[in-house]
Design brief:
InterPro entries: Homeodomain-like_sf, Myb_dom, Myb_TF_plants, SANT/Myb. It is found in: Nucleus. One of its GO terms (cellular component) is nucleus. Pfam families: Myb_DNA-binding (PF00249). This is MYB/HD-like transcription factor. By secondary structure, this protein is an all-alpha fold. The chain folds into 2 domains: 43 residues, Arc Repressor Mutant, subunit A; 191 residues, no CATH class. A two-stranded antiparallel ribbon has the order 1-2. Strand 1 and strand 2 form a beta hairpin. It binds a DNA duplex through helix 3 and helix 6.
Length: 323
DNA sequence: AACGTCCTCAACCGCTGTAGA
DNA sequence: ATCTACAGCGGTTGAGGACGT
């Protein structure tokens, strides 16, 4: 036996709410409080079903709703949480005060998801998806000489491009994200200058994410640490998140480097709970003056910067085919 | 100006989980 | 244990605005 409908559909209005309806609903709830949605429309003089009233209230009329554009911090948080929780929009919304699950879901589907796809990142698994990469933009990022790219070079590149190199690209971008302190554009330099880095840390209510200080004295080309996050639920079933990390050291040797990168990616895939490459922990924790409200261009730039990396000298022979 | 296409997001639909009778 | 009402969730839809030709 199927469920009986929550209300008699006949004669009930559907579609967009009018200001008058909003006023009726708001006034009623202010006086009586929310709840008892089944009887609310009748009592409030609305020709709507209770479900519609509840949705209108929770998604639009509630006084604590924060309207307007999502900040970059909020985007960061959404991406981080989505990488852990998946499409649990209500759980994500509960960590973003003033935002509704519906709003977050819409924003994900219309903005963030597309942006990740453009970056070659699978929005479901949050892993780099090589088949999704917009190679032209990647190549522009890498070489900064779009005019020098030609079809012949691209074809040769395609023939020679292999999984290892693309993983290198993907993981290098991840590293640049993680290791970048304030300016994303500086990230790649960290890897070629053998710097002693003190990566940032995140310590918030939901996350424990510590990056160790790394000494990279003997590294020829790259140095860095890949944090691999995993998630577990507590026996009590609450949603406290426990994030663990695996460190993957990267060193100069080609084979070792690609091997490390493969391991890093395998770890990610095995855990199926993934770090979000486009989000840096220090951003969440940062009190920097980084511009957090952004135009579309700034947001695109913010994300595309995350895929900027430099080809080490030892890979010059590969890079040469583009030029 | 007119038309077509794309994009956004409020609202709906169908389903599940839960509490109470 | 079963049934029912209700709240809530996630996926989907479609109206309307923005944009391009």
């Amino acid at each position: 036996m199927g469920r009986v409908p929550c209300c008699d559909k006949n004669g009930l209005k559907k579609g967009p709410w009018t200001p008058e309806e909003d006023l009726k609903l708001t006034n009623y709830i202010q006086f009586h409080g929310p709840g008892n949605w089944r009887s609310l429309p009748k009592n409030a003089g609305l020709k709507r079903c209770g479900k519609s009233c509840r949705l209108r209230w929770t998604n639009y009329l509630r006084p604590d709703i924060k309207r307007g554009r999502f900040s970059l911090e909020e985007e960061d948080i959404i991406i981080q949480l989505h990488s852990i929780l998946g499409n649990k929009w209500s759980a994500i919304a509960s960590r973003l005060p003033g935002r509704t699950d519906n709003e977050i879901k819409n924003y994900w589907n219309t903005h963030i998801r597309k942006r990740l796809l453009r970056m070659g990142i699978d929005p479901v698994t949050h892993t780099p998806r090589l088949d999704l990469l917009d190679m032209s933009s990647i190549l522009r990022s890498v070489f900064g000489k779009p005019s020098l790219l030609n079809m012949q070079g691209l074809l040769r590149a395609q023939a020679l491009m292999n999984q290892g190199l693309l993983k290198l690209a993907s993981t290098a971008s991840l590293l640049s994200t993680i290791n970048n302190d304030e300016n994303p554009n500086l990230a790649s330099h960290n890897y070629v200058q053998n710097q002693v880095t003190t990566p940032p840390s995140l310590d918030s209510a939901q996350f424990q994410f510590q990056m160790p200080t790394t000494q990279t004295n003997n590294v020829e080309v790259f140095s860095g640490t890949v944090a691999n996050l995993s998630c577990s639920s507590s026996p009590s079933g609450d949603e406290n998140l426990v994030l663990q990390q695996n460190q993957v050291g990267l060193s100069g040797n080609h084979d070792a480097l690609v091997h490390s990168l493969n391991n890093a990616n395998q770890n990610m895939e095995c855990d199926s709970v993934l770090p979000t490459p486009v989000s840096s922990p220090n951003r969440l924790n940062s009190s920097s003056n980084y511009v957090r409200s952004g135009t579309d261009e700034e947001r695109d730039s913010f994300f595309s910067d995350l895929f900027e990396f430099e080809i080490p000298e030892s890979l010059d022979d590969i890079a040469d085919i583009f030029l």
